[in-house]
Each structure stands twice: as structure tokens, then as C-alpha cells.
Amino acid sequence: MKSWISFLLPNDEYKEKKMLYFFSEGAVILFLSLIVMMICNKYFHLDVEIALLVAIAIFLFYVSGRYIVSGIEYTDISTERAYKKELKVISIRTIGFVVIYLVCYLIFINLPKNFNEWFEILSLLIGVSIIWFLSSYISLKRSYKKNKQLL
Questions:
Q1: Which of 44, 103, 122, 142 is the most buried (most CB within 10 A)?
Q2: Model confidence at 150, in pLDDT bands (50, 70, 90)?
Q3: Which keywords belong to this entry (predicted)?
């Protein structure tokens, strides 16, 4: 069945079904969190921007977290050699992201002028790259264990 959301779903039928479950679960959690925020708004003043940002973050973190932990991203990783090769690819991708982001930042935003500006940009970059690497690593590790059990 085709829908307007089909472009967000993978072509693999198993992955598509799992992703639909994740989106549905995230929607239910989003709905419940909005109800909780409406109730809390009677006792605490919540800004609309904060409430919407929290609701969007809850949905995105839930769906992303479920996808990472499910182990369905790397379907073809079932041997230790393929696992190590993909781990190298993840490492190179993360390092490539750091280099490209830093170069683009220096070209378009300009060179940071003091230590605080360097610290801000580097801490943001390191934080994002660590989160990206860990999420990819966890997904790879789960996929590898799951695929290894299927053999």
C-alpha cells in the first residue's frame, strides 16, 4: 500500500513493517506527552515553543532510539570480517563528517577569534560526532548479533 509517508520507509518489507511500528508507537507516546503537558500547563506555565520542541524531541528520540536498538539497519553484516569492515566505514564516515563540518564552518562562518569560540565549535562538533558514532556502533553491534543468531 502506498501512502504519502512511503518516501520515509525503506524498500525492504520487514524493515518497512518495523518502521511503521516505531512511528505508531512514537505517535502514541507523542499523544500521551501532549496530554501530560496540557495537564501540567494548568499548574506550571509552559511556553508554546518549549512544549512543541519537547513534543517533537520525544517523538524523534523515541523513533530513532527504537531503530538503533532494533538491529535492523545492517542486514548484510553476519561475519566478523564484514563487521570489522563496516566498523571502519563508520569510523571513516564520522571522521569525514568532522573534517567536512570544520572546513565548511571555517569557510562560511569565519575563523573563531578566541578560545571560547574555538571551545564552542569543537565541543559541539565532538559531541555530535560521538553521538553519531555511538548510535551507528550500537546499531551495527545489534545487527551483527541478530544476523549471527539467524545463521
A1: 142
A2: confident
A3: Membrane, Transmembrane, Transmembrane helix
**Could you give the CA distance from residue 40 to residue 54 in angstroms, rounded to a whole number?**
13
d(CA 128, CA 103): 16
Residues 6+ apart with CB under 8 A from 140: 73, 74, 77, 83, 86, 87, 90
Cα–Cα distance list, 26 to 57, 91, 120, 122, 134 (Å): 11, 30, 32, 32, 22
Whether residue 8 is predicted with pLDDT greater than 80 in this model: the reply is: no
As a whole number of angstroms, the distance between CA 122 and CA 42 comes to: 41
Report the distance separating Cα 124 and Cα 117, nearest Å.
11
Look at the block and give the residue holding cell 544476523.
147
pTM metric for this prediction: 0.81
C-alpha cell at 32: 500521551
